[in-house]
Structure formats: structure tokens, C-alpha cells
């Protein structure tokens, strides 16, 4: 094992990083429960870690995407990978909404609950499809970088990478530069990740402290159903696809992606987790830089299975709570809008709540539902972001395997980070 697979973080000794992170997560929950609002004193440490990860997102996505595209100079291959990626993303998302609806119907968390909305909260207007499409191309790439507009950065990086491929030899020095930059940013990610156990600990302690049991209890059932549906989706759909389609061990997968899932859980941002996801895909799953650098940034932007599950469960929950009967057409409408809404959801905390408004309006459900959920949304966001990131990594694994861009020796190695 390379020296970076074991870290020395004081008392944690030479334990693999993913175990250290899980311990940080557990201790964080404990600290939040025991010390309540005093645990908020740890917030600056969490913010520091979050800032360090966020610092990496824009440059890392840009250089690794350009390096990834140039590694696939064969344009037929690039096209094939794009089709597979988008296809798997949409398919798993449709599965996710359906699982959400199924669990919502099975457990009926809203039935018989005496819920009174504390006030009407207008859902913010979600952007239309045309707006999203037109906004894809940056008029000024520098502004896109400054604003951290990931979709625009992706489009610019793809255009740049494809142009480099088209001119071949003449682009050789630039290709070399981007490859070298990508290595530099991977190293930087590696360094930031060494602080993950402490960062995750501080972040989670803050979340638990600010969402005391009192806030969670009245809606405990719906929280439970969303967590259950999320776990079922990850185990059945992701585990199933990995085992059946790729003939890879789901256990190894979850072990390899554990650091990314822990960071997703504690930050509630799949865009924020991107540097860690890329690192896990390359180092623990053995996916090539080309595939990981392309599939993951796209996924962090458009693939949100956890968000889709959440919308499925909540649409039913709110219908049950307000005594609205849904018909078959409305169920179909929910599947369609929730899939589209999850594509349009940004990978930042709380984005799914805004999109929930969209799904509710499409089938005429009361928007007060959004206000009802707002208080517990962060707890739900943690679950959905974890699934979102797991889905991106699962797709990366499937695409990598089918393109022969996955090193099974690394995937099956006993010591992931
Ligand atoms: N927070 C989620 C994510 O970053 C998006 C959402 O709010 O649903 O993946």
C-alpha cells in the first residue's frame, strides 16, 4: 500500500482513513447529543474543512475534466461514455422516485398525523428547462469560474478538451500541462482529506446540536421512511447493478466509497464532495482518471437519486397529511417532474427543498408542505446527498468497468483509504 493509505492523526494511529472518518462521524453525533448548543463552538473547525474542500472544486473539476476528455481522444469513445453515463443516471433516478413512492405508500407516514403548517412559505421559482439549457454556455468563462457555476465550467471544459483532441499534436504541451495540473490537485485533495476525520466530526456535531430531538420527533416517521428508502435504494439498485451488470463486489464498493459518503453526509453537498468522490473513484475503486474526471462532475450536477427518493416520499407524505387522493396520472406526473427536478437540482445544501415546491405544484399539492418540511430538511438532506454521491460513484464504476477503464486489482485490494 502506498504511504498515503494510512495516516497518522495522533491517537488514531495508522488506521485507514475511511475508518477514521466513520469514527469522527460517530463521535460528532455523540458530541452534538451530549453537549447540545455548546457543540456549536466546533463550527469554525467544520467551516475550515468545508472551505478547504470548496477551494478545490472549481480548479479540480476543470483540470480533471479537461485531462479526462483529452485522455479519450477517440471521439466515438467519448460519445459512447456520454450516452452510457446519461442513460444510467436517468434510469437510476426513475428507479429512485419509484422507490420513494413505494415506501411512501407502504408506510404512509403522513396518515393520521395532525400537521398544521406554521405558515405559508412560497416555494422559490425553479428555473425552466429552456433557461437551464440557455444558461449552459458561459458568455464569460472567467465569470463562470468566479461564480463557481459547475455546469458552465463543465461545458467550457468539454469544449476545450474536444478542441485539444481535434488539433492533435499541436495541443501536446497543453495536454501535458493539464495532466500535470490534475496530478497537483489530486495531491492537494489528498492532503485536505487527511483532515476529514476532524472536519466531519465538527460538522456533524454542529448539525446534531442545532437540530435537537425536539425538532425531529414530530416528523420522525417521515425521516425514518426516507432513510429506509435511501438505504434500500443503495443496497438493492446500486448493489444489484454492481453485482449483476459489472460482476463486482458491492461490499468492496461501499468500503471504497465510505470517505465520500461520510463527507456527503456531513456537508449535504454533492458538489462539495466532488474532490473526495474523484479521489475515492481513482484510488479505491481503480477507475481511470479519464472516466472518473468526466462521469463524476456531470453526476454531481445532474444525478440526484437521493433527491428523487425524497421527492417521491414527500409528495405522498404531503398528500396523505392534507388528505389529498392522488390518481394514476398524478403518480406519473410525480415520477416525471421529480426526475426532471432532480436533474435541475444544484448539488448544494437545501436545493432539493426548493425543487420540492416544483413537484408539489405540478400535481396541485399544497405548497405549505414545503414549510412543514423546512425545519427538518437538513437531516433529510444528509441522507439524500449521501445517496446522490453513491449514485454518481456507482455509475462511474459501471462505466469504468464496461470501458475497461477499471483496475480490478485496486478495486479488490484489501486496504482502501
Ligand atoms: N444537497 C443535495 C446535494 O448536494 C441536493 C439537494 O438538496 O437535494 O446533493
UniProtKB/TrEMBL annotation:
PROSITE patterns: NA_DICARBOXYL_SYMP_2. It holds the Pfam family SDF. It is a multi-pass membrane protein. The keyword Membrane applies. InterPro entries: Na-dicarboxylate_symporter, Na-dicarboxylate_symporter_CS, Na:dicarbo_symporter_sf. It is found in: Cell membrane. Gene3D superfamilies: Sodium:dicarboxylate symporter. The chain crosses the membrane at residues 21-46, 52-74, 86-107, 191-213, 225-245, 354-376. The keyword Transmembrane applies. Its main location: membrane. This is Dicarboxylate/amino acid:cation symporter. It comes from Pseudomonas spirodelae.
